[in-house]
Amino acid sequence: MKRIFVIALLLAACRKPVEDPPAAEGQQAAAAVVEEAPPPEVADLVWSSVSESGVGALAEVRQSATARGRCRVTAALGAQKLWSVDACIATRKEMRFVSPDGIAVVVIDPLPDSDETKLGALWREGRHVVDLTPASMRLPQSATRTEGGKLHWLGPADPKAIPEGVQVQLVNGSTHLIRFDGRGIEAPPPPQSVQAVAGPAASETCAPCSYTDSAGVYHVVESATEIPPEYRKQAGRIRGTVQRADASPTQPPAQAASPASGRAASSEPVMTEQQAIKALREEARQAPVQRPPDPNRNSVGENFIEYNNRITGTLPQTSAPKATCIDNSGASVPCSQIGMQVHY
Fold first, then answer.
1. H or E stretch including 11?
2. H or E element, residue 325
3. What 3-state class would DSSP assign to 294?
């Protein structure tokens, strides 16, 4: 009877459902990695690099991205956080080298496009220091060549990180050291000021110029040097040929008689800008009209007959036969002999 009871208990235990064992810690970690994988559109902006020449604590620089152009870079030396910056300093295809102290990062583009002169960049504490170009690294012309739409500058040997920087082999077989501290790399000259690029203002080169002073008086001057400094910005260039027409108030204020103008105030009546323009137009309208010269008359307005009469002292006569002319030999003969008719 006791044996039958033990068998029944064993059968009941076999019918009890078996629970699933808990997931292994490794499987949970793998699932977490899958969940945190970056989106495909920013996968090339997510990377991590460690110092290859460090001793002791390991220096590591990480870059994460939430969208194109939106990255976060952090640096740490062991458990100590060093610096962080919101910037995209490199991509996965570029080579990244971290200094042993975690301060600097050298980024190298191994095969840039042929129309690019940027071979990489140097970053220190999250700050862009300088772009690596053939000019900034002072590379010889033989150190680069263009082939297949790409700029080749690295030799067959892989770049190697050393405590001072990154040692690279160039296509001409020579070696070059890119230092973590930036020594030996020339920064580009600062951009020229807008004023230097744009050149002098029109008010500084006008000839003749016009301006209106604080009293409302319109002035016309030969060049910008005659304009008081406080009025040069509003000065304008006068197009065409004009006659000088200046006017000043009878009792000008102190600032109107500026020494820079080069002229003392006059006692002429006040003339507005519109009045000055009207006066210039009226003067141009009343100027004598210059007629083109008559090809049949000389510089004193004489025709051929008048010229001959003057040089020979011959005056017009009442009868044509007494008039004389000069023939081709220079002799004085009656005009009828050379086929000319004299009209009085």
1. helix 2-15
2. strand 324-326
3. coil
DSSP assignment letter at 330: S
Q: Which amino acid is at 88?
A: C
List the structure tokens of 246: 């200046």
Provide the edge-to-edge strand list for the sheet that holds 127-132.
95-98, 104-108, 120-124, 127-132
Q: What is the residue type of 23?
A: A
**Residues 335, 324 contacting (CB under 8 angstroms):** yes
User: 268: which DSSP letter?
Assistant: P
What share of residues in the chain are helix, strand, coil (percent, to 5)? 25, 25, 50
- Predicted pLDDT at 207: 67
* Closest to 90 (Cα-Cα) out of 71, 103, 104: 71
| Tens digits of residue pLDDT in 5-42 | 444 444 444 444 444 444 444 444 444 444 467 788 89
Distance CA 268, CA 337 (A): 68
For residue 292, give both structure tokens: 């083109």
312: amino acid identity, one letter: T
The Cα 180–Cα 261 span in angstroms is 59
Residue linked to tokens 């005056």? 315
Residues 176-217: pLDDT tens digits?
999 999 999 988 776 554 444 444 454 456 767 888 888 888
Spatial CA neighbour of 53 closest among 160, 198, 174? 160
Instruction: Please name which of 91, 92, 100, 96 lies closest in space to residue 108, comparing C-alpha atoms.
Output: 96
Cα-Cα-Cα-Cα dihedral sign, residues 253, 254, 260, 266: positive
313, pLDDT greater than 90: no
Is residue 218 within 8 Å of residue 210, measured between CB atoms? yes
